[in-house]
Amino acid sequence: MDPGFWHERWREGRIGFHQPSVTPQLERHWDALGLPAGSTVFVPLCGKSLDMRWLAARGHRVLGVELSAIAVREFFGEQGLEPTLRETAYGVHHEAGPFEIIVGDAFRLDREALAACAGVFDRAALVALPPDMRLRYAGSTWAALPQGCRGLVLTLEYPQAEKAGPPFAVGADEMQALFGDDWAPVLLERSDILATEPRFIEAGVGALAAATWRLERQPTR
Ligand SMILES: C[S@@+](CC[C@H](N)C(=O)[O-])C[C@H]1O[C@@H](n2cnc3c(N)ncnc32)[C@H](O)[C@@H]1O
């Protein structure tokens, strides 16, 4: 999944991953994380997700990163906000109200870029990446988040041989392998969603589950 793949999807408006409403698992599980209002939440590979608006309405500041300038322009336009632009080594920062979205590559973010983040929300980010990039994503982007940072990761589980990603399948074993030592992932819920996903049924996928994980950055040993 090189950047060109995603740029083309946004240019052509092929953004079936974008949801017209807030992710239900976010609404169900966010408050239990106990993050105070005013704290900053990192939303990697954010697209123009309405989850960012929901997080802001809970009193959070939101730091997103997204490759596509089209997505970020559309996000601010749909929120009726005119962002100010600022360029750094990470990309072009778009800022308005509680939102700061960097048009840039998530893999270029370092500890300094993410130092303010107390929370993190990943929907359709980890599962948007093929296996080798998932390793880099956990080992580089997530590794740059500060100690005590906590959040949710939403995954999909299905037999990968039955359908090509994205979205990719990421099972419990892989969650442990990617995040186990540093983030102590805890499964909060898993539900069968095959009946609501016609594209998976058409592809002949026999089983599909959505899983929600709680992660918290552990102190370094
Ligand atoms: C499947 S979409 C999910 C978007 C959003 N999380 C949502 O729930 O609607 C994945 C997004 O990640 C962006 N993306 C892919 N690779 C990226 C990278 N390396 N850095 C920043 N954004 C990236 C794509 O442009 C796309 O908008």
TrEMBL record:
It is found in: Cytoplasm. This is Thiopurine S-methyltransferase. The lineage of its organism: Bacteria, Pseudomonadati, Pseudomonadota, Gammaproteobacteria, Lysobacterales. It comes from Luteimonas padinae. Its EC number is 2.1.1.67. Belongs to the class I-like SAM-binding methyltransferase superfamily. TPMT family. PROSITE patterns: SAM_MT_TPMT. It catalyses: S-adenosyl-L-methionine + a thiopurine = S-adenosyl-L-homocysteine + a thiopurine S-methylether. It is an enzyme of class 2 (transferase). Gene3D superfamilies: Vaccinia Virus protein VP39. One of its GO terms (biological process) is methylation. One of its GO terms (molecular function) is thiopurine S-methyltransferase activity. Its main location: cytoplasm. It comes from the Bacteria. Keywords: Cytoplasm, Methyltransferase, S-adenosyl-L-methionine, Transferase. S-adenosyl-L-methionine binds at residues 10, 45, 66, 123.
